[in-house]
Give the backbone structure.
Amino acid sequence: MNVADILGMTKEELVNLEIPTAAGGNVRCTNCTHCTDCTDCAYCADCAYCADCAYCADCTDCTNCTDCTNCTDCTNCTNCTHCTDCKNCMNCTHCTDCKNCMNCTDCTHCTDCMNCYKCSSQKSSQYMVANVQLTREQYTQVMDKLED
């Protein structure tokens, strides 16, 4: 699009004009769409204020995350969804202020945990539900119920 194109537009065309991706203030981003003020990101969509992220969507203030969706203030996370203030987490969902956790859901303030559900303030825990220790088989049984 050039100056002549813009000057030749009707009011309706001007009102419906889409904002170009580059207008979002992004720096060195590759194939990002509808992102705002992101830096060194690739293949992200609808993110804001992120840096060094790839394949993320609807994230805000995240750094070095990959394949995350709807996360806020996360760092070094992979495949997380709806997480906030998490660091070095993988495959977590709806977690808040967790660090080095994997496969956790609805957890808060947990560190070095794996396969936990609705836990709080746990450290180095595994196969827990609501801060109750389960065996791997019991945990799998509970998770299977949730998937039905």
